[in-house]
């Protein structure tokens, strides 16, 4: 994120939408599986991505979308808060800020100015598993983002005064998160659910670590992870694949392959007992959040969990809406989510924001009723069919824009998802049965696997608006 005020709404609205609804995609990370020919496009995918591997290890994905008015150029690095060590949490996000502070070729402030002058948009975001940068420009302006991204892959200056300036900005973001009662609850639920794995840490990092991260720390981190063989370039829009490949090779091809040290990320041990965490902060309304350890996309249970999340909160017919809001209401909002798009196993969670006189404990009791129902009774066939339709509709909608398509492909590359999953996406979603829903609910939505978080409103100035609990992406 640059030091100017940048529009981040797409991160709040668009990225979680993809994360929660999209399970499958092509292996775009550099695996040996070949790109399909033009005549073998999988029916669940709008356009066929072409996959190129440069000699220095850079992966290039291109999608020719002749109907798009714009072109998106994205660079995805396979490094995020998951890769951070104790005492240096938040360094991925800190480095993302520093990527906008300038090189000799593009001094501080030049990137935003140049992109703005051609009517484009640029931004970046950090997640648990990746950091991504993008420019959305007119199709004939591709050369500028190529030049920008190739240059800052290796030539970041990291001037000491800029490090301190960005530190102040990051610390302010960190304090805003702490002051937001909902995000504080999410942070504590994750920190309680994950005891060993780095998903324990917030993407933005802990305040003390941000304060003590040095320029040398950032430079070392930058050199260790920002290299062609740890990155994927995604280009989507009206394009000629051969021309894009030539320009990318000219700009990135001379960057040497880096020495990527394989990290040993500690696996989270199984949870066997209920865990609790409590937040007491000024807030408008109480919240109860319940989270359960769940597998990622590699599991045979992932599809059923995706559908289960939709059954819980995909519409006004969903179980949470009917049981928490419509019938004998105790909540003004209740939703569930499961994010399979994580490198390592993550969480299946749901929450309820209560009515003014409702307590978090009452909300938990009512949520437990929903859990028992989903574990013991078959899902209504009409609700199951509706939930599948919503998932597949969202999957198609995620491909409607060049930017959305690029985001989808970039995340696939970051998480190393094989192409074969994509070709079976629609079939596998439709294959989920009511018995599958009940099976995964019985396996994962159990007290020993559960972390419960309570938000108790206290006196004081409450935030003027409610931010929904969810995966925090910076």
Molecular structure report:
Residues 61-205 form the Peptidase M16 N-terminal domain. It comes from Leptospirillum ferrodiazotrophum. The chain is α+β, with helices and mostly antiparallel strands. 41% of the residues lie in helices and 17% in strands. It folds into two domains: 9-252, 2-Layer Sandwich (Cytochrome Bc1 Complex, Chain A, domain 1); 275-457, Cytochrome Bc1 Complex, Chain A, domain 1 (2-Layer Sandwich), CATH 3.30.830.10. It is built from 17 helices and eleven strands. Strands 1-2-6-3-5-4 form a six-stranded mixed sheet, sandwiched between helices. Helix 2 (91-98) crosses helix 8 and helix 10 packs across helix 17 (434-444). The protein is globular, with a radius of gyration of 22 Å. The termini are close together. Residues 1-42 have low confidence and may be disordered.
Explain briefly what this protein structure is.
The protein is α+β, with helices and mostly antiparallel strands. The chain has helices at residues 9-21, 91-98, 110-117, 143-152, 160-179, 181-193, 207-212, 215-225, 241-252, 302-313, 319-326, 360-376, 381-397, 402-415, 419-423, 425-431, 434-444, and strands at 50-53, 59-64, 71-77, 121-126, 131-137, 231-237, 275-282, 287-294, 331-338, 346-354, 450-458. The protein folds into two domains: 9-252, Cytochrome Bc1 Complex, Chain A, domain 1, CATH 3.30.830; 275-457, Cytochrome Bc1 Complex, Chain A, domain 1 (2-Layer Sandwich).
